[in-house]
Structures are given as C-alpha cells and as structure tokens.
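Good morning C.,

I know you're traveling, so I'll keep this short. The sequence:
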Amino acid sequence: MKAAWRSDKGRVRERNEDSVAVLPEFGLVVLGDGMGGHHAGEVASQIVVESVSVSLMAAFPGLGGKVLEEAVAGANRALFSAMDEAPGLQGMGSTVVAGAFDGQWLHYTHVGDSRLYRFRHRILECLTRDHTLIQSLVDEGMFSSEQEARGAGVSASVLTQGLGTHHDIEIGVGRGEIEPGDLYLFCSDGLSAMVDDEQIGAALEESGGDVEQAAGRLLDAALAGGGVDNISLVVVDPTGGSGA
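The tokens, ready to paste straight into the viewer:
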C-alpha cells in the first residue's frame, strides 16, 4: 500500500480543524473534519481520528465493516464523554471517513460529508453518500440534482448526521473488491466543494499513479478554487503500483 496525504487550513480559515491518520502497516486511513467554536472542532476531529485508529489497530487484522462501524460508534461516545468532562467543548462535532485495506478488499465507513472516491479504468466513482440536507432532498426526489438544489437556495453544508450531534447516528458502511491500478481518495469537503469530480478524475489520471503527485495536484486545485475551508485528503494505491 502506497499513500500520500495533505492537510491544509486553506486560504480563509484561521486554523486547521481536520485530522488525518494514515497507517500503512495496518492498511488504515482515517480522516475527520471537525466542527465547533473556538478550538472545539480541532479537538473533535482529533478525538474521532485517534479513537477510530486505536480501535481498529486493536482489532487488526479482522477489520471488516462491522468492526469499522463499532469503531465509529465508539468515537461518537468518546466525543460525548469529552463534552461532559469539559463544558467548553459543548457543541463540537466531526465527520469521519475511514477505510481498511486487506489486500483483496477495502472495507469503509463514513458519517457526514467527508468522502471516499475510487478511480478505476479512468472512471471516478464516489463510494460514499453525503449525510447532508441537500443530498436528502435529492434522494427524496424534490430536486433532480445537487446543482438544481443549490440553484434553489439549498445550502450544501447542512449535515443530517455527524459525530457528536446525536447519541444514535446513522453510520454508512460498505466494501469493495480491489483491482490492480485502483486509486482511492479520502477527503474532507474542503476538497470536494472546491474541485468537481471531473477535475478530481483529471488530477488522478494525470498523476500516472504517483500518489504524491496526485495529492499535490488535488491540494493545489482546491486552493486555486478558493480554499474557503480546511482541505484534507489521502490518495491510496492499495497494490503499490502493481498493474494498471
């Protein structure tokens, strides 16, 4: 497994409230996008990423979808415990997207609007579905697309699910078989809101499978697009460049 990552505060925010953990020896990637006033967002994402990472390392090598789901639920409980102990952290929360590569399969989980993409045979596919108001309205048929919903004034940043917001949360889980030549992209909405899918696919293709080059191109594109939010991303080649 080869991986490259970037995390940047962007051009507008005063600090970076995202957190990232990449653990190639365990085949793990965990990314969180924090929310909350003062420094609470930064604290929230750190708690989530550390909690999920520790839980998954303890379960290694049995890192199936159920294990990931339980790790995310544990991180949610950890956020509420931290808020109980420190009232100044009340209202903090975080998204999460995490993946476990086991050679043949990728098991993944997510809550919120941080995403996981797969780039295969020059085709980009988003494997996760945002837990957002705008996505819910599209799913319910009120709008035909996110673009139409945004045109009607619906905000793309309103979450329907997030760690630290509810004790009972909807946790997305899935798995996919890995093929040689695949590239995977984990990212916060600081990337996906600034760089559309066509640009993401082009950056991954133009990198020629070089994960460091791909990560740099994507960060540059998000900053050039405005960089209005923190930007975090991880590009993974799970087979280490074996095949195309």
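Safe travels,
E.
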